[in-house]
Fold this protein.
Amino acid sequence: DQQVKQNSPSLSVQEGRISILNCDYTNSMFDYFLWYKKYPAEGPTFLISISSIKDKNEDGRFTVFLNKSAKHLSLHIVPSQPGDSAVYFCAARRRTGANNLFFGTGTRLTVIP
Amino acid sequence: DGGITQSPKYLFRKEGQNVTLSCEQNLNHDAMYWYRQDPGQGLRLIYYSQIVNDFQKGDIAEGYSVSREKKESFPLTVTSAQKNPTAFYLCASSSQGSNQPQHFGDGTRLSIL
């Protein structure tokens, strides 16, 4: 049962425009959400996170929005750059229990120069 | 530089053999994790350890074993009981406490000959 879902396997965006990656979750016990970026044959790199007590967190060109009522979060990248081309994973952690993460299946972002 | 080192990067195994994947971290993190990634899927948790000499099964622990004798090291053994071992294996670590992201190594790709 996939508790974290990324329904768009791929996304293409022109350089300089906004990239919006979406993620939905089903477990109301999740309280901490993260986005990771992954290049082929490398491990995921942590990008940005958000606690469930917030609805927005910003770090440079990256902003994560959380809509708890809709169980939805999104990652905005503005402006998009060719180096942003990678697979982006959304992940979530439960409020109780261990710190292990539940991952979505990823969205491949291609930024076209 | 602090980080997580996984070795080897590529590993081949004959059917019926056990094989051990190495994971070492010098981040002074208490918690360590093993994930498996298959094509088109998100990361799935195999085992995790929150402190030395203690570890817990994740979602897909069958056919795997781990040990945590030192804080820095969390080796994963893929046993002959694992029916479909070909995958990309990722090790991660994190500090204890709330809202601490996991940091990943660059992975080991295991293939069956």
About this structure: Chain A touches chain B at residues 2, 4, 6, 9, 32, 34, 36, 41-46, 49, 51, 89, 91, 98-106 (CB under 8 Å).
